[in-house]
Amino acid sequence: MKISLLKSMSAGCALAAMVSACSSGDQSTSTTDSVMADSPKVVALKPAGPAPEWGKTIKPEMQVVIEKLASYGDKPIETLSAVDARKNHTPTDAVMDLVKQNNITVPAPQVDTVGKDIAVNGGKMHMRIYTPKLGKAPFPIIVYYHGGGFVIANIDVYNASAQALAEQVNAIVVSVAYRLGPEDKFPTAHNDAFAAYEWTVKNAAGINGDPAKIAVVGESAGGNLAANVSIMARDNKIMLPVHQVLVYPIAQANMNTESYKMYANAKPLNKAMMTWFTEQYLSTMIESQNPKISLVNANLKGLPATTIITAEIDPLHDDGAMLANKLADAGVKVNSRNYEGVTHEFFGMALIVPEAKAAQAYAAEQLKAAFKTSGL
């Protein structure tokens, strides 16, 4: 079955999909939605200028975030060293500054957090564990992997995503601070990601979690890591995640796809940055063909049911579509949803961007359904 995330489903299905996925339930099928202007509004912010040339369909709230990010005047990441690139402002900075400037109420966290260091090959790795304040243990568990091209960002930058998942699913979230390139080259991040999952499987009960209900979620590079964790769990014959949510994942190395061409100059992620990330994390460009990087070349049979979320204005849009196709061809149940008018990194912006709020609710719905049916 072939899927095009660029195509909208019927209006009726798109509306119904806000509540539940339009799925036949067949284990080897895949469903796709394109979520449009019927997403709930969070706050009405208006951009200062016209839509950018690279994103004429951009939604107003999304454009406001992009304008704020541009206002910092940071040098392009692809022109910097990794150390300096990590000092740049992030989309999260832009969102939080807009929240302050517009007196937007930030709800009090409904989770408690604690840090945890674990030993990994060649060193140690930090994780942040989010535990719901309400509800009864044992809780289901989500192992979460942040984005940043395997080079930049951290669990603080992606706190909003991890916290939202914990609160909306009422699950423990283990957010993984895997080691980054170029200081730690491929496949260090991939091995760290699996080590964190192994630790979670072995220690689920000790963190008030249910060892039979563990899922993986990742954004961008983290989406690639989450999928690799499922593959490594299968190959190492340890418990598979009950579900995986892959948000605009890095899934292949060809930077001449239609979305790479259309959004080569997009913000906050563009083609030049993707080339830079690849050079920073990999020892040679030949490694980009490794199935751990190019997931579309991997053996995907026997992986858990998968939810793929993509953004329209994103060079990685087609990566998600291609991976959805490959998973479906391998007999994996896939539900996919594309959010129009938004860019890469939108998922954690629910305080500002309505589509982010909708995407988080969709991911939470998919995870809750998977947890409900697992371990029965």
Automatic annotation (TrEMBL):
Domain Alpha/beta hydrolase fold-3: 142-347
Keyword line: Hydrolase, Signal
The protein, known as: Alpha/beta hydrolase
Organism superkingdom: Bacteria
Stored PANTHER family: ALPHA_BETA HYDROLASE FOLD-3 DOMAIN-CONTAINING PROTEIN, TRIACYLGLYCEROL LIPASE
Any one cellular-component term (Gene Ontology): cytosol
UniProt signal peptide: 1-16
InterPro entries in the cross-refs: AB_hydrolase_3 (IPR013094), AB_hydrolase_fold (IPR029058)
GO molecular-function term, one example from the UniProt record: triacylglycerol lipase activity
Pfam families registered for this protein in UniProt: Abhydrolase_3
Species, as recorded: Pedobacter endophyticus
Annotated SUPFAM superfamilies: alpha/beta-Hydrolases (SSF53474)
GO terms (BP aspect): triglyceride catabolic process
